[in-house]
Amino acid sequence: MTDKELHISKIENGTVIDHIDAGQGLNVLSLLGIDGSDGESVSVVMNFVSSLVGSKDIVKVQNRELNQDELDVLSLISPQVTINIISNYEVSLKHRVQRPDCVSGVLNCPNRNCITNSNEPIESKFNIKDEVISCEYCGTHIEDVTQHLA
Ligand code: CTP
Ligand code: ZN
Fold first, then answer.
1. Cα separations in angstroms, 5 against 8, 47, 146
2. Cα atoms found within 13 Å of the Cα of residue 56, Cβ hemisphere only
3. 83 C-alpha vs ligand 1 centroid, how far in Å?
4. How far is the CA of 125 from the centre of ligand 2 (A)?
């Protein structure tokens, strides 16, 4: 490594979300509801150039093991991400994400008149079937998930 290269530190404990489509790193944080307000240490690497996959984003969240349910939602924006759970600097678990059947509270319904956009305390819920994402309450479809992050 020369002084012109950027060294991206390994983490001691936590979760590394790797192989994120380039440009989707911040959307990954939005989908997971991570904004640093819990004091966790978060690194986002954008447009990391790798000889294998070209350009990718990487998110590293220290001292937090994200669970499979909260991670599966990432398949909506970047299906090929890999999740690495890090313990004591080693990758202790590596897995992929799977398209969930439904997601709650992470997307907003595009329909202004939907009950989830009213003053009622109703959490959004979308069903996912055959690549179609539709509102549980009004049936409206979401075409581009990144435009409707809660
Ligand atoms: N990583 C990290 N801190 C560690 C260990 C790994 O931040 N203590 C990161 C690596 O930088 C990499 C990811 O976790 O982005 C996966 O690590 P590893 O499995 O060692 O890398 P690869 O074998 O290249 O992963 P893959 O086969 O999934 O591409
Ligand atoms: Zn709706």
1. 9, 14, 31
2. 16
3. 9
4. 8
